[in-house]
Write a structure and sequence with these properties.
single chain; alpha+beta; Phosphatidylinositol 3-kinase Catalytic Subunit, Chain A, Domain 5; 8-stranded antiparallel beta sheet; 3-stranded antiparallel beta sheet; 17 helices; globular
Length: about 475
């Protein structure tokens, strides 16, 4: 539980109108929150002693006030902001926090870190002794990739560890629901095959996300954040950069399918996959290398099948993280669920999941369609098909939430919308094996068809150039 840490005494009667507004307006404006705080400070001088009911109401008000101060960070305009200075730290360009932000005027030492899993106390125990609270924080922050340019900020907990948090200026409430779906999927698979993370919505426009420690985006690992470096630069310095390869695809983005395919094949001939060298370098002994490759293949198979079943799109190289120690994947930015990306993106995605050349590079020795990757994918698909009712139920719950990208009920008739019905029908077909025709396919045939579609030059050449299908 989070509340503002001031000893405030307040009489019962003046709270009534403020409390009514608190519950009627779940997300107050900053000015309203500041006025409430000023009112309570003035009332403190009166010396009235509140009862237990008033204290509970006050905690709700203070929690709303804290959310307002956190939202100030998530919604901070960074670009062209003269209050924010740029400095060099450890060879990286960092941004300095403006000291006039309201959150820095709070007593943060008793505030629990919002993005980590905390221990729940016994009923009636409102102490924070078992919670990991703020001890310190970095005076600088950085920006992540993406259209919204999320803020990455490191906070030190009272346990001495540093925690990275992502403050995003987008509606992240749907991400919470999708993460819950992944948790349900992990229970079906009877293991934590899908790594999940905590998401804390602050309102309909912003939220805080747990940073997946030890992970790096595929883009940063393979070609660098600027598309000019990374592993590809180290291993194939004489080849064109990812920037040049993307530019070649961009030039023919609006040309015929045949021209786009021809250019894509040409790019692939000039740009070599290099991901296998990461495993050679990090795990030089054959025994450890074999273990990591098995873990990598299992993670790739699980995420590929799950992403296809739930229709998770927008899988460009910045939205897929790679844990360099465990050799597993983490998928982030989960707004394009249930094939929403095929209806909303300017260039619709043509592949069922991302299994591009670099992603397959560590496994090429085993084969694709007839290798162990196809076997692992088939096993995952069979387990999901056995639990199809659970998946359909969770998907229906997501569609009924007003925060999702879908609208379950039409305003006029109250009946399910056409888009929602199509999304559920498409999901049901995938779980039945009828997603490619009337006749149901076995899981084995279905997976091999999907692998062919995911690696097809025709399909990859029609992807958006920023997706970097050659990577």
């Amino acid at each position: 539980m989070c509340f503002f840490f001031e000893q405030i005494q307040i009489p019962a009667q003046p709270l009534k109108s403020a409390v009514e507004r608190t519950f009627k307006e779940p997300f107050e404006s900053e000015s309203l929150a500041d006025n409430r705080y000023a009112d309570t400070r003035r009332v403190q001088k009166i010396g009235s002693v509140p009862n237990v009911k008033d204290l509970n109401i006050l905690k709700v008000m203070n929690k709303r006030l804290e959310n307002t101060k956190k939202k100030e960070i998530a919604k901070l305009q960074v670009k062209e902001n003269i209050r924010i200075q740029r400095v060099e730290r450890d060879g990286k360009t960092m941004l300095v926090w403006p000291r006039d932000l309201k959150i820095f005027k709070c007593k943060l030492d008793q505030l629990p870190i919002p993005t980590i899993s905390q221990k729940i106390g016994a009923p009636g125990d409102l102490s924070t002794s078992n919670l990991i609270t703020w001890r310190s924080y970095k005076d600088v922050f950085s920006l992540a990739d993406g259209l919204s340019s999320p803020i990455i900020w490191e906070i030190q907990g009272c346990d001495g560890r540093w925690y990275k948090t992502v403050w995003k200026k987008e509606d992240v409430r749907q991400d919470v629901l999708v993460e819950q779906m992944f948790d349900v999927t992990n229970n079906m698979l009877e293991k934590r095959a899908l790594r999940t993370y905590n998401v804390v919505p602050l309102d309909t426009e912003c939220g805080i996300i747990e940073f997946c420690g030890g992970s790096v985006s595929l883009k940063e690992l393979l070609c660098g954040t600027n598309r000019e470096g990374g592993l590809h630069k180290e291993m194939c310095s004489d080849e064109p950069s990812a920037t040049q390869a993307s530019r070649m695809m961009k030039e023919v983005q609006s040309d015929t399918s045949e021209m786009r395919r021809r250019v894509f094949v040409e790019v692939c001939q000039q740009y070599s996959p290099v991901f296998r060298h990461f495993f050679y370098r990090q795990f030089p002994t054959a025994h450890i290398w074999r273990q990591k490759i098995d873990t990598y293949r299992e993670s790739l198979a699980t995420w590929s099948v799950v992403c296809y079943i739930v229709g998770l799109g927008d899988r460009h190289a910045s939205n897929i993280l790679f844990d360099q120690k465990e050799c597993t994947f983490v998928h982030i930015d989960l707004g394009m669920i249930l094939e929403y990306s095929k209806r909303s993106l300017p260039v619709p995605e043509q592949v069922p999941f991302r299994i591009t050349r670099d992603v397959l590079d560590p496994l090429l020795i085993e084969g694709i369609e007839n290798g162990r990757l196809a076997e692992d994918c088939t096993k995952i698909m069979e387990k999901l098909e056995q639990n199809n009712k659970v998946i359909l139920g969770v998907a229906s719950a997501i569609l009924r939430e007003t925060m999702s990208n879908f609208r379950e009920a039409e305003q006029s008739s109250g009946r399910p919308s056409y888009i929602s019905e199509m999304a559920i029908g498409r999901l049901r077909d995938k779980l039945r094996g009828t997603d490619d025709g009337v006749t149901a396919q076995s899981s084995n045939l279905q997976i091999r068809r999907l692998l062919r579609d995911a690696t097809s030059s025709d399909n990859l050449s029609r992807m958006f150039f920023g997706w970097m299908p050659f990577l």
